[in-house]
Structure formats: structure tokens, C-alpha cells
Amino acid sequence: MCDVPTLGAQETSTGAATTTEAFEARLVEALNASGLMLLLSLGHRTGLLAAMAEAPPETSEALATRTELDERYVREWLGGMVASGVVETDPSTGTYWLPQEHALLLTDKGPANLAVYSQFIAILGSVEDDVVRCFREGGGVPYSRYPRFQEVMASDSGQTVLPALFDAILPLAEGLTERLERGIRVLDCACGRGRALMAMAQRYPASRFVGYDLSQEAIDWARREADRAGLANLTFEVRDLSDFDETAEPEAFDLVTTFDGIHDQARPRSLLRGIRRSLAPGGVYLVQDIHASSHHHLDREHPLGTMLYAVSVSHCMTVSLAQGGEGLGTMWGRERALAYLEEAGFGDIAVHQLEHDIQNDYFVCHP
């Protein structure tokens, strides 16, 4: 690997040197952070982080034996964790440990396991050649090129949607939880692995739930889990929603939800019109989607803006374009979302943000 050059000393202007040096420092920090994400993903997937969260200081040999992993790989991974300041070491004893304050953020010991999100870096990087081709030739990268994306998204949803679903998200629509308890018809479009639906079906046995998704893998997983849980009030269906404005059953549902499911659709306008068509009188559409602006300059202060644009270019936008779709992209933004919802026939729209979730907006929509 080539050495990273230093540029600041080459500048002649004091002001330019300061700017260049600061930007150079930022890039070096970004390179290290990118490396850390890859190492965290490896630690998460191999179980090393979870194993270290519960253990006293131990050697690389002991850790490798306990986790049934190859010691040479474990030792090199530990070196990266020490260099990043995530793991501590005592060179006199050759032992390593994960501080509890770090374990709370990198394992299931705390309220959110942030190591889950590190997996996106490797997944998106794996399709870089395909995305480069699309830059040159147009088109997109199909869903089939992302074999683990549904799995990681389900883990993401498990930390943003599921913990807040009953106490914060569903109560955003006035009277909704009471209606669910009495029994209504519910549809989740682009449901993925359907974890939110399963939670609702279990909580509200008097209601009936349906999930649609394009991914056969996701639907197969959801059906297996629903059968295992004995959820007779829940069904899943593989369905292309690009013509939902024409194929949706009119007035079939009292509640329709989409959780992070609109922006990567091939034809989001058609889906939204179909959702409006499928709502019964008095029905409500509850939307979770990415918190952003529809204007690039207003995304400068977004705490996850750069990462989310990377996700868009390498997944959400391109999978839509692969279907001949609109390519709306992850960062389509609140302004465009409101315009699309109004165009679809929703006249009463309230937008909310939740304290625990800096990534999403929540829209409560009535016709």
C-alpha cells in the first residue's frame, strides 16, 4: 500500500496551508474511520465483540479458543481495535479487553448496537465495480447483488422502529392504538422481513395484518418466523408494487404503513397513489422515511448526510434505476416527500421526529 502523502507543507500561502492541512487531517481521519468500520463489521459478524463484552482481560489465544476462531486473524483484528482506541491492552500480560462503556454501544448490552451499521460499508463496497459501470453507462444495480442487505436492514429496523413502535410511533396517529386493539385491517408495503408486522400481530390479535415485498428471500424469512410464532392473523406476499396505483384493492385497509420503504421504489408515486386507493374511509397512512432536505446545500449539517448519500448512490437510488424506475434516492427529502404525498391525495399530513431517531421523519397522513 502506498504511503499517504502530506500536502500541507507544500503550500506557500499561510491561509491556504491552514485550509489544506485541516482538510488533509479530515481525510486521514476518514481513512481511519473507514478502516474501523470494516473491523467493527468483522467483530460483529464473528461474535468477537459480543464475546469480549462479557469477559475479563484475556490473550488473543484464549479469545480465539473461546470463540472457535483462527488465532492469527483474531490477533490482527485486536491490533486494529487497539490502534483505533476501541479495545484496551496490557502489553506486560498480553491481554486485551473491551471497556464496558464501549461494549454498551457495540453489542446488545446497551440500548443500540452501533456495530450493526458498520456492515453497510462492506456491503456497499462490494458493488463498487457495478456502480462505476452505472456512472459510465447508466442503468442500475439489481437487488440480487445485495444478498445481505435485507438482513442488515432488519437489524437496523430492530433498533429504530421496534423499540419505539408501541410507545412512540403508533401513538402519533390519534386513536390508532385503540383501533388496533379493537381490530382493523393493516398493510405494510415494502415490509422487508416483516419484523414490525410480527410485533404488531402479536400485540393486537384482533387485527389482521398483511405484508408485501419484492424480495422472495425476505418474504420467505418472514413467513418462517410468523409460522414459528403461530401468528395466524398475519400473511406475507411477494409483490411488485410498481403498479400498485392500478392493482391495489380499493378501501381494503384501515392502516397502511411503510418503514423506510418509499425512496428506493421503482415508481414511488404509483405506490403512494395505490396506498391512498387502498385506504378505507377514516384510514390512516403512517410513513417512516429518511430525514433530509430535498436541497443539497441544506444537508450540510445533517449528522449522517455523507453516509446516507453513499447509501443512496450505492443502493437505494441504483436499485430503483435497475428496475427502470425513478431513482428517487435515499435523500429525497421532506419537501419532495410532502409534495408526493399531496399529489397522491393526502390532504392532512403531520410530520414528526422522535428523540431517539436522528435518521428518520414520521408522517401521519389522512386523505
TrEMBL record:
<dbReference type="InterPro" id="IPR048711">
    <property type="entry name" value="WHD_Rv2258c"/>
</dbReference>
<protein>
    <submittedName>
        <fullName>Methyltransferase domain-containing protein</fullName>
    </submittedName>
</protein>
<keyword id="KW-0489">Methyltransferase</keyword>
<dbReference type="Pfam" id="PF13847">
    <property type="entry name" value="Methyltransf_31"/>
</dbReference>
<dbReference type="GO" id="GO:0008168">
    <property type="term" value="F:methyltransferase activity"/>
</dbReference>
<dbReference type="InterPro" id="IPR029063">
    <property type="entry name" value="SAM-dependent_MTases_sf"/>
</dbReference>
<keyword id="KW-0808">Transferase</keyword>
<dbReference type="GO" id="GO:0032259">
    <property type="term" value="P:methylation"/>
</dbReference>
<feature type="domain" description="Methyltransferase">
    <location>
        <begin position="181"/>
        <end position="294"/>
    </location>
</feature>
<dbReference type="InterPro" id="IPR053173">
    <property type="entry name" value="SAM-binding_MTase"/>
</dbReference>
<dbReference type="Pfam" id="PF21320">
    <property type="entry name" value="WHD_Rv2258c"/>
</dbReference>
<feature type="domain" description="S-adenosylmethionine-dependent methyltransferase Rv2258c-like winged HTH">
    <location>
        <begin position="35"/>
        <end position="107"/>
    </location>
</feature>
<dbReference type="InterPro" id="IPR036390">
    <property type="entry name" value="WH_DNA-bd_sf"/>
</dbReference>
<dbReference type="InterPro" id="IPR025714">
    <property type="entry name" value="Methyltranfer_dom"/>
</dbReference>
<dbReference type="InterPro" id="IPR036388">
    <property type="entry name" value="WH-like_DNA-bd_sf"/>
</dbReference>
